[in-house]
Amino acid sequence: MIKILERIMEDKDLGDVVGYTTDGIDAVNKITANQPDIVLIDLLIPNKDGINIVKEFQKEVFKPIFVMISQVSSKDMIAKAYEAGIEFFIHKPINAIEVENIIRKVNEKIDMQKKLNTIKNMFSSNDTYHKSFEEKKKEKATLILQKIGILGQKGSQDILNIVMILLENKMYNNDFTLKEVLKEYNLNSRTVEQRMRRAANAGLRNIANLGLEDNLNETYLEFSNSLYSFEQVKLEMDYLRGKSTKRGKVNLKKFLESICLYIGEE
């Protein structure tokens, strides 16, 4: 069951599996240590059942979203699971399409909450009219990431950090390598670069989807040939249509430079 769920997560690009266990007590420890966004949990996991685990985390500051998976069909038990704090209930045997749809819904909810929190934080200051030049530029960069739908991605904060470094040091017009920048500021180059690349690729997919729905969409027209290469956006659109087996690619360095140029000259 664990392997099936892990395969679905990986094949459908639903997220990273950070851990698993078949013991309820160990589950509490691993959830606390790894702090995942989503927990798929069996109602009848040994030593500490799923409902009690969910209840325990409702009392904590860190509250992951729980999706319960079980062959239990008792309406009372399912009701207790929802009362304990689960978001969805998936019945065994596992249906891959149902799992994918539910995880995507949960991911959308997480992304939306992160966007709302970011926007809320942006306007929480009482000194709105006296923000520094750097803060205003960061807000513009944040708005761009929001428009292309990646503000909730793990790599979005890394993108913002690197963009601000490039702007502050006026490096975006110079010949630089991303690895040099990451090394200079003591950032884990491989991990940070992977997170940024995933986020940028997610933005490419979002732009391509917007173009498929409406080729006159303002966001599509604004960014399909500025942040991204139009040829690569077109390739991604063909892939999504099923006309090509090749996907569009992102030049991460040019993507970051484009964001800098987009807001640096204003």
How are the SSEs placed, and which strands pair?
Blueprint: H1 2-11, H2 24-34, E1 38-42, H3 50-58, E2 65-70, H4 75-84, E3 88-91, H5 96-122, H6 133-147, H7 156-168, H8 178-184, H9 189-213, H10 218-223, H11 230-241, H12 252-264
Parallel strand pairs: 1-2, 2-3
> Based on DSSP secondary structure assignment, what is the total number of beta strands?
3
**Main sheet overview:** 3 strands, parallel
User: Could you tell me the mean pLDDT?
Assistant: 86
Strand content: 5-15%
- Sheet with the most strands: spatial strand order: 1-2-3
Shape: globular
Order of helices and strands: HHEHEHEHHHHHHHH
Helical fraction: 55-70%
Concise overview:
It contains 12 helices and 3 strands; from the N terminus they run ααβαβαβαααααααα. It is mainly α. It has a 3-stranded parallel sheet with strand order 1-2-3, sandwiched between helices.
Account of the 3D structure:
The chain is mainly α and 266 residues long. The protein folds into 2 domains: 2-110, Rossmann fold (3-Layer(aba) Sandwich), CATH 3.40.50; 131-264, no CATH class. The protein is 59% helix and 6% strand. The chain is built from 12 helices and 3 strands; from the N terminus they run ααβαβαβαααααααα. Strands 1-2-3 form a 3-stranded parallel beta sheet, with helices on both faces. β2 (65-70), α4 and β3 form a beta-alpha-beta unit. α6 crosses α12 and α9 (189-213) crosses α11 (230-241). The mean pLDDT is 86.
